[in-house]
């Protein structure tokens, strides 16, 4: 049997995430994602994904305190981030920084507790790594806003150097909850595949960040933002899309391996969030552009099973939050780490080395010809 792209192959049983395609619903640990997005926070959702249940208020406070205590990475990581050339891609700096978090730690323990502690350290440090690099490359000093109450507030504050408004923090928190987990996507699979060798959490998350970078996966939220800029106005949507399709190009923020019969369920919340932010800023340009793209691309490509995905509206929301375009991708990672850690921990509980196979289609029986006798 042969499954290109492993399409439809079940690689593990899970209690983390369920995607109900029939009813266009996503559940984290049995909870409707829309309800979580509207009522919960990134930290609460990370706790839910990792420990399998919602925390009590004391548990949540303890969890947040543990994260708070390890937000600032060790000095050697700061130095690595500071030594990155300003032209580096922020996602590459993040990947390198997360990899460097492993240096100097005793990694001999591979039990669930040890991996969860590492997951906490990685999750907590990611916002600082991204923000510090961004500030340094723009000639500003990194900040470590110790007073920030949440992951979302810390991240926005550390990137901008000034305290975000509660509404901005809430908007980012919704985005972080929405992006936190999505079943066996490529980066989660990569994390699990690496962890299946019994490599540690740092190795698994570093590899997952590498996977997320690709434009067919997380990198699409940067390409979608660039598309919005390039298209520029709703009047240009039709001609721009037609031109891309005529050149055989894919439209970023559209298409999905799972969602072939309708849009990504996460869009219901994201469309509303994008509209709210637009209204708050009195600037509807970006949300209207995304809506027009959604309408036109769907009219052209829905018969092929192509609908908008999360990255289209994520690009709009991040723009309204004032994030530079190339931070869209590491911001995704700052959230998705919650899902990666959950999958690594779950898989470790009944670990089996991941080792698929392939079908050989090359020649056999060729004779070695010494180099001086080759034509
Ligand atoms: C958070 C996330 O990771 S969500 C995904 C983010 N990625 C993107 O937005 C990038 C653009 N989208 C894509 O490249 C794809 O839709 C993927 C990779 C996400 C999913 O693709 P698959 O399920 O493997 O679909 P596949 O690649 O087989 O495409 C099927 C057909 O649709 C076309 N197609 C798929 N996506 C698009 C798109 N965005 N624009 C135009 N055509 C598309 C393909 O060219 C192919 O056409 P063909 O049958 O005429 O050759
Ligand atoms: O599930 C996928 O293949 C991609 C995706 O939408 C995600 O990772 O959020």
Walk me through the structure.
The protein has helices at residues 33-39, 42-51, 57-69, 75-82, 90-101, 112-137, 151-160, 166-179, 186-195, 201-212, 220-231, 237-246, 267-281, 285-301, 310-320, 328-348; strands at 17-20, 25-28, 31-32. It is mostly helical and 375 residues long. It folds into 2 domains: 13-213 and 325-348, Citrate Synthase, domain 1, CATH 1.10.580.10; 220-320, Cytochrome P450-Terp, domain 2 (Cytochrome p450-Terp, domain 2), CATH 1.10.230. The protein has a 3-stranded antiparallel sheet with strand order 1-2-3. A hairpin with a 4-residue loop joins β1 (17-20) and β2 (25-28). α4 runs parallel beside α6 and α9 (186-195) packs across α16 (328-348). The mean pLDDT is 97. The site of oxaloacetate ion (OAA) has 6 residues, from loops. It comes from Pyrobaculum ferrireducens. One of its GO terms (biological process) is tricarboxylic acid cycle.
Bound molecules: acetyl coenzyme *A, oxaloacetate ion
Distance between the termini: 39 Å
Provide the residue-averaged pLDDT: 97
Q: What's the CATH C level of the largest domain?
A: Mainly Alpha
| CATH architecture group name of the largest domain | Orthogonal Bundle
Which percent range describes the beta-strand content? under 5%
CATH topology of the largest domain: Citrate Synthase, domain 1
Low-confidence stretches: none
What is the overall shape? Answer: globular
* Count of the separate structural domains: 2
Q: Which structural class matches the secondary elements?
A: mainly alpha
Q: Main beta sheet: strand number and arrangement?
A: 3 strands, antiparallel
How many β-strands, per DSSP? 3
Radius of gyration over all CA atoms, rounded: 22 Å
EC number: 2.3.3.16
Pathway: Carbohydrate metabolism; tricarboxylic acid cycle
Enzyme class: transferase
Active site: 256, 311
């Amino acid at each position: 049997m042969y499954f290109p792209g492993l399409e439809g192959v079940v690689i593990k049983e899970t209690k983390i995430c369920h995607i109900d395609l029939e009813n266009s619903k996503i559940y984290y640990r049995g909870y409707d994602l829309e309800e979580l997005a509207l009522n919960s926070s990134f930290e609460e959702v990370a706790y839910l994904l990792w420990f399998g249940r919602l925390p009590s208020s004391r548990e949540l406070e303890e969890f947040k305190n543990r994260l708070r205590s390890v937000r600032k990475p060790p000095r050697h990581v700061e130095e690595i981030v500071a030594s990155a050339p300003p032209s580096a891609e922020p996602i590459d700096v993040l990947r390198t920084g997360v990899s460097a978090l492993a240096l100097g730690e005793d990694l001999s323990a591979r039990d669930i507790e040890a991996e969860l502690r590492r997951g906490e350290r990685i999750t907590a440090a990611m916002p600082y790594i991204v923000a510090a690099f961004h500030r340094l490359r723009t000639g500003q000093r990194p900040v470590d806003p110790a007073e920030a109450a949440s992951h979302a507030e810390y991240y926005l504050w550390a990137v901008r150097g000034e305290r975000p408004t509660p509404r901005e923090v809430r908007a980012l928190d919704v985005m972080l909850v929405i992006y936190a987990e999505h079943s066996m996507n490529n980066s989660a699979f990569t994390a699990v595949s690496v962890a299946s060798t019994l490599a540690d959490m740092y190795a698994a998350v570093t590899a997952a960040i590498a996977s997320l970078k690709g434009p067919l996966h997380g990198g699409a939220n940067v390409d979608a933002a660039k598309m919005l800029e390039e298209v520029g106005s709703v009047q240009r949507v039709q001609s721009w899309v037609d031109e891309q399709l005529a050149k055989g190009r894919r439209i970023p923020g559209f298409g999905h391996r799972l969602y072939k019969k309708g849009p990504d369920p996460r869009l219901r919340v994201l469309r509303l969030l994008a509209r709210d932010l637009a209204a708050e800023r009195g600037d509807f340009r970006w949300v209207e552009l995304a809506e027009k793209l959604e309408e036109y691309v769907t009219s052209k490509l829905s018969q092929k099973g192509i609908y908008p995905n999360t990255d289209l509206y994520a690009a709009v929301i991040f723009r309204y939050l004032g994030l530079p375009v190339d931070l869209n991708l590491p911001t995704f990672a700052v959230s998705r780490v919650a899902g990666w850690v959950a999958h690594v921990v779950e898989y470790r509980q009944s670990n089996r080395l991941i080792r698929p196979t392939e079908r050989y289609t090359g020649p056999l029986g060729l004779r070695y010809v010494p180099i001086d006798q080759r034509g």
